[in-house]
Each structure stands twice: as structure tokens, then as C-alpha cells.
């Protein structure tokens, strides 16, 4: 008996201890592998992610499944409870599996503090269940009573009654809110288009010969595809299993449902709150018009306009349930348009322009573009009624329409990419979610129409891309000229962990923010044309182009092939196999002497004996490369010219760095400086005895890693620290450690005549703590010796050992938005125009964010080239460090007043800076600036460096067609 009691005691104790340990560990985030293991376990669990079923009563009580809530405490709902580890995963990783709506509160699902992550996860979960036989509920989907459809629908109606009462939510989150209606059940709704795509994907995954039909259904579904599927089934009957036959039959039924005429009248009859209102009357007028004219062009045009009318009028309707009914009508209109768009086949240029305009209008109405963006581009896209357009005007229509496609796709990515990236780490099938959403949008048909217009204009202008044998080549567009030869690497996913090589050509969804040297790049999400990566590519003659996601998918089959890649001065793109290179192209890569085309860091005027911390007011452009780098020197110059637009600042000159490098290096029998120079001497010796360049580089990188770590631990001299303390108070007006500052690396290798060095070294944002500032100084000193910075230097500089960092210390300005001004029209090619790119928050545009970009014309007016689609932006709190806030896109970033002020600033810089600096420089400038409460602040100015060799290359000139932009094209011309 005693033994039994003892056994029971220890059993209970073990359970208590195990539970305590489990709870303790569950607070730490689970690894991706652990989450994947959970998902796999739930797939094979007959209850999936659920523990048991209970009644949840109105008074908050929970009862057994056979003991329903009594009438006196309300009806209650019955559903499953989550397993304990599912709840723990939500707390530790903010990942929610198998969500039951009736088990959630409105605030929980809307999840505002996490950028609506829970609702987005609910949508991804529904997608995964469609394509993966229930996903985490593969067996749990048969767990009777775990989810009650009628309770989920009732919850959905209640949720929309709550959320659609909020005007600000509708204005800020129109696209996302409208998308959620496709997934959250209400009124017995469905999403047949997504079901059609997912069923075809499942079949092709099981039976590869179905892939061509799947591709057709995903890219351009038509009613005639039903017969093709039936023919496929008959032809392959001997190879099809019973299960495959069932799945194909199910797909046929789904497609028959999808292609049934959309009954808008029936939906309007159900929408009793809408009937008789202004928008209700417009819906009724559309129905009546369609009854007498069912031609696809009429239906698409009218449905597109009605979609836009509903979006514009939604806020005028104040009743939440009426808003819900209008949004349901909006979704049905999009289905109707989706059905009819493929049947509208224009025969003339005018007809093609009209279709593009209609589909763009529909994209705005469906939320893929914002209303203010439509105001910017609608005039350009509405020219289909004219008799003729010049080739230049028609090309601008094409560029604008192509941009509308890109912006539409970017809207989907901006809303879902973060959550998809999280889910992809433990469920790779999640990655296709965004593609599925885009293919289910109006952008699918818009992109096809724009591609057809591009093909026509390419023939008229002879500006034809030649990219292997892939389709839709007109969606390629060159960003800067250059040529390269090497292995093609196609990265379909995140690029941040990709180890790049300087002799390869990369196709990215989005280029990494800290890109190391590469031979050539092309990106789907180009970020913006003035990011550090783009400026480096432009400066160094690296061919760089933008392409569509479909182009990237088409190029995947050439991953690993050796190719020739060129972008001409006019932006046409060539990618061809090595075997098809001409003799002229091969001659471009004949090995040259190692130092050819490299440049030398000037050190003849450097002053290393000055070891005083300087007031930025006491330096100007003449001190660049002498006392400090160009950032500090030029900002000091700007402080003299624009005293109210430039902050105060401190400069830690080259001499202080060099003085500290003379100290004994721990673990070495030399100073830091001697150690560095000995490394370069040894590297040169290795080359002379025939050691391969990769081995030499590997040796240097190992030595630099040791040096970098040593610099970060280097003792700072007392005199230097005392000077900092004093200068913070006298110059910055605050005690050291009481005001947040930027520490910006400012080397003598930056902004040379032929090398920009943009973004290669470290900038520390908004550092407040005294100890962090002092450590930050050493981190910035160490940053020129990182692998990325060294590789860029080594590739283009003759004397990379003579790189000296100074540091610019300036107070933080928590700007509302910031970005870059280039005093040249990069897109227009006019040196008198301006290029402006801005993002919300601090550090805008320079790190490759999706930026709001304009050309400001010298002749007057401006053109929107791209809106910002960056979902998060950086803030600079007074407590130091950085914060992140969620961005919405319904309002533009830069206003008209800002653009006018930027134009005035640019004119002043052009006129006065060369005189103020006694410079003969006649090129464009690259200016970093920001706005706080509409006040302009200047942070940096540097020369805008382009690669003269690429621009003047005889080969690039030979592949650049001579285009007669004045050529008039009749819009009645047959396609």
C-alpha cells in the first residue's frame, strides 16, 4: 500500500514538474523545425489541432458536449477547444493553427497590434486546406462537431457589423478588408475561383501530365477549358486512379459553377438595405444595361465603373450591414468581370487602350490601386478616344499601364508577404498563397492586355527584348545599362540569406538590402531606382533590369546555365545562352590586366595629425578627403548654405581613427595599423607566387575578421572621450547620452569621381546611451573591413589599404517621411528634370524600400512613377533605438507643397554649390532629405555617379535601337 501511495505521489509530482517545465519552455519561441513537427503531427491526428468539444454558454460557462447550455443562460455555441500546445504556440510565436472564428473575439482576429496577422493566418490556413487536403486538419476535418458552419457564418456577420462601422478602417484597409470577405464565412458565400485553382494544382501535383492544363487554368481560365479537361481525362483514362478521376470530376463541376453567369440581380434582391439608395440604383442600372447589351467590352467597362463607384461611395453609406451588402456585390462584379475579360478581344490599338483603361479602373475599384494613384494616372490611360498618338505618348501609356500591373501585385505582397514568409519557414506550400491571390485578381487580365500592347509597341519602335525563349518579354525593362557574362541564378523566394558571387547573374524577387558584388541583377520588386543597391549598380555599370513574377518563373528552367546579359542605354534587355554569343560579345570578356579600369583613393591631401573632435560648422567641402569624408564635409557646406534645414553636428576626423590604430593590437606583435598593412603585403606576395585569387581573398577576409573584432574591443583614449563629452554639450546642446544621434561612417573611399560607395559602410540609427555611442564609434570604424564593403572596394579600388573612416555625429530627426533627390531625370533622361523617391519614416528610399517616386519636369508638372508599397516604416523614438509602425497606402507620402519646395532646393543647389565649393563639377547631385511637420531637413549631398564606360560603350550603343519618338500612330491601326 505504501509503495502504491509512494508511486502515486511521485507520479503526481512528475506530472506537476513536467507541466511546469513545459509551460516554462512554451514561453520561448519554437523553432521552425518544431512548428513543422507539430503541423505534421496534427495532419495525422484524428482531432487535428483540437483537444475536445465543449458547449460555450452566453454566461461564460463551459459544458460537456452532451450537456447543452440551458435556456435561462442563453443558447451558447458548440465547437472544439485547441490543444494546449496550440495555445502555447500562439503565445510564444504568435502563430495560430486551426482557428475557429466562434472561439475568437473581434479584436483577437483583427489583431491590430500585429498588422492583422491572425486574420491573414486564417486566410492562409483556408488556402492550405484547399491545396493540401485539409492541411493541419487532414484527419481532423472529420472530427464531428469541432466547427459548426452556421456558427462561423453568424460570427462572420457579427464581425463585419463591428468592423464596417469604422470609417477609418474602410479608408485605410479597403483592399485587405475586401479580401477578407472571400474567406470569412457570411451569408453562405464562397470563393469558387480559388477552389478552381487549388483543385487544378492538387491534380497536377499528383499527375504531372496535367501541368499544362493547370498552367492554363491559373493564367487564363476560359469556359472552353472544361472540354479540354474532359478530353484529357478520356485520353489518359488508363493511367488515372479512382481518386484522380474523382478529383478531375470535382474540378469540372467547380469550373462549371465558376463559368455560370453571375446573377447580380439575385444578389441585389437579397441586399435589401442597398435597394433604393444611390449606389443601389447604379447597380440596378447596370443590371438593366447588361440585359440589353451583353458584349464583353460593354460588360467589362460598366462593371469596372460600378466597382469604382461602390468603392468611392462606400463611406457615404453609414450602415455597416448595407456596406457589407455592397462589398458582396463588389466581389460578384469582379467575378463577372473576370469571366468576361478574356472574351473581349480588341482588334485595334484604340480598343486595346480602352480595355487596359477599363481593367485598371476595375483594379482601383477592387482595391489593388489606391484612389489617389488613379487620379495620377487616369489621364494618361484615358487617351483611347483620340485619333492618333506619337510613339513617345503611346510608350508613356504602356509604361503607366505596366506600372499599374506592378502596383497591383505589390499591393498583394505588401499585405501578405510578412505572414507568408513566416509560414513558409515551416510549411513551404504557403509560398504560393500570394501568387494565388494575384492570379485571382483583375491584375491577371490587365497584365495580359499590357503585354499585348507592349508587343505591338516593340514592333513599332524596334525596342525588342531578347530574353531566351520565354513569353511576355515586353514586361522586361532595363534600369541601367551594362553587360555581364556568367552563371544565371534564379532566386524564387527570400534573397536575404543568399550567398552571392561576383561572377554570377542573379534574378531576384527582391534584391537583398546588403547586396555584395555581382555580375548582373534583375528584380521583380525593384525597390526604387535611387536605393543604394541601384546607385551602386548604376555607378559600376552592372546591368540591372526589372521583370514580372511570370518572367522569373519562366527563367527558372535556365537556373545554373551560363548566359550573356545586357541592358542597353534605352532599356532593352538581352539574355542569351553562352552558345549563342557573337564574337563581339565574347570579346567583351577577354581577360584584362588586373588593375584595368580600377581607380585610386586619393591620399595626397589627407591630414592624419588632427585628433580633435570638430564642430561640423567648421568643415566644408574643401575638407573632404583631408580631415574627413564627404558626408561630413558636404553637410558642413550645406549648413553654411541652408542653416535652418541642416542639424548641428560633430565630426570625428580621420586622425582620431589613425591615432587609435597605432595602439598595440591584443594577441599580435604589432599595432592595428601594422597588422592591416601586413595583410595586404602578404596578399600581394601570395599573388606573385601564383596563389589563386579566391584563396587570396579568403585569406584576407579571415584576417579582416580578426581585425574587425579587435577594433570593436579597442580601448578608446581618455582625451577623445572627454572631447566628445564637451562637444555634445557645447555643439549639440545636450549632455552626452541624453540626446539620440546618428553615427554615420564617412570614409575617404566614398563619392570619388568614379566610385560612389553608397551604403557600403555602417550607419547607426538613433543611439542614445553613452556606452552604446562609444561602442558605436568602434563599430563604425570596423565597418569598412566587413566582407561586403571590402569586396566592393577590392573590386574597384587600386589601393584599398588606404581607406580611412571618419564619423559624422548628428542629432536624430524623427521625420514623417524621408528619401532621395537626384538632380537629373533618371527615367526621362533629361538632365534638367528631377527624380524624387520617398518612403514613410526615417531612412526612406536608400535601403531599397518600395518608395513613392516622381519625375519632376523642368518644363513644369510631375509624373508619378511608383507609389510606396512598404508595409512597415522606421521611427526614431526619443528614448533611442528604432521603432516600426504599420503603413497604409490610401494617402500619398509627398504632397504638392513638398514637391515644389524640393524643386526650389534643387535649383539653389545647382546654382550655388559649385561656386560655394570652388568646384568645376557639372554633374547631377544625390541628396538625402526628409520632412518633419512639413519642414524640410537636409542630411547628405554627394555627386550622382554613373558609369561612363557603360553609358558610352560601343557595344551597348550597337544594341540600342534608334527610335523615332515623333512617329505618329493611328489608334485605328490593327493589332
Automatic annotation (TrEMBL):
<dbReference type="GO" id="GO:0046872">
    <property type="term" value="F:metal ion binding"/>
</dbReference>
<feature type="transmembrane region" description="Helical">
    <location>
        <begin position="7"/>
        <end position="25"/>
    </location>
</feature>
<dbReference type="GO" id="GO:0008986">
    <property type="term" value="F:pyruvate, water dikinase activity"/>
</dbReference>
<comment type="function">
    <text>Catalyzes the phosphorylation of pyruvate to phosphoenolpyruvate.</text>
</comment>
<keyword id="KW-0460">Magnesium</keyword>
<dbReference type="Pfam" id="PF01326">
    <property type="entry name" value="PPDK_N"/>
</dbReference>
<keyword id="KW-0472">Membrane</keyword>
<dbReference type="InterPro" id="IPR006319">
    <property type="entry name" value="PEP_synth"/>
</dbReference>
<keyword id="KW-0479">Metal-binding</keyword>
<keyword id="KW-0418">Kinase</keyword>
<keyword id="KW-0670">Pyruvate</keyword>
<dbReference type="InterPro" id="IPR013815">
    <property type="entry name" value="ATP_grasp_subdomain_1"/>
</dbReference>
<dbReference type="GO" id="GO:0005524">
    <property type="term" value="F:ATP binding"/>
</dbReference>
<comment type="similarity">
    <text>Belongs to the PEP-utilizing enzyme family.</text>
</comment>
<keyword id="KW-0812">Transmembrane</keyword>
<keyword id="KW-0547">Nucleotide-binding</keyword>
<keyword id="KW-0067">ATP-binding</keyword>
<keyword id="KW-0808">Transferase</keyword>
<keyword id="KW-1133">Transmembrane helix</keyword>
<dbReference type="InterPro" id="IPR002192">
    <property type="entry name" value="PPDK_AMP/ATP-bd"/>
</dbReference>
<feature type="domain" description="Pyruvate phosphate dikinase AMP/ATP-binding">
    <location>
        <begin position="627"/>
        <end position="950"/>
    </location>
</feature>
<protein>
    <recommendedName>
        <fullName>Phosphoenolpyruvate synthase</fullName>
        <ecNumber>2.7.9.2</ecNumber>
    </recommendedName>
</protein>
<comment type="pathway">
    <text>Carbohydrate biosynthesis; gluconeogenesis.</text>
</comment>
